[in-house]
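Predict structure. Chain length: 206.
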Amino acid sequence: MVLPKQFIFRSATFVLLGLGAALPAAARITCCDVDGKRTCGDPPPQQCVSKAKTEFNKGGVAKKVEAPLTAEEKVAREAEAARLAEEKKKAADLARRDRALVDSYTSEKDIDLARDRAVAEIEKNSEQAKNRLEAAQKKKQKFDQEKEFYQKKPMPAALQAQIKDNESEIAAQSKALQEKDASIEAINLRFETDKARYRTLKAAGK
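Prediction complete.
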């Protein structure tokens, strides 16, 4: 039996599967609904290009094909895929951190000891900044006394430069000590968060 190259079935109840054995070897019938009527053909009817459709191979096996996405639908689908990928990445990162947390500590006390060591290291490194600040402040007192002699006459350029350098040193070391305090605060917060998570994981039998 040889079927015409392109045809239209007007009845939605016509069963294409029954024709499977009679289709030519290369035939692939494509059907879609157009204004409530089933339209079929090989090659696919033009009316089916932008619609959801069903393809029947030579054996009459049906395959559903989605309608082509609009530009807006493509953007939405890509955004959803990106969101799901980000969620998957976050879940993997959390699982990795959880494993590292459980593997690194045997008790909450171990976490407290690690926090104390980290804070002690910050304090040790800030000792130099503290000593330099104290030395700069002592120099400032000396420079303040020297400036008294130049209230009514120009101050030597060399002294002006020394005073400027001293002010910069005080500002730099003061900032370093402020950053030290911020670092300690961040360390305390991080270890408290780790301890709370560790407690949760252990309660869950991890």
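Summary: Confidence is low (pLDDT under 50) at residues 1-23.
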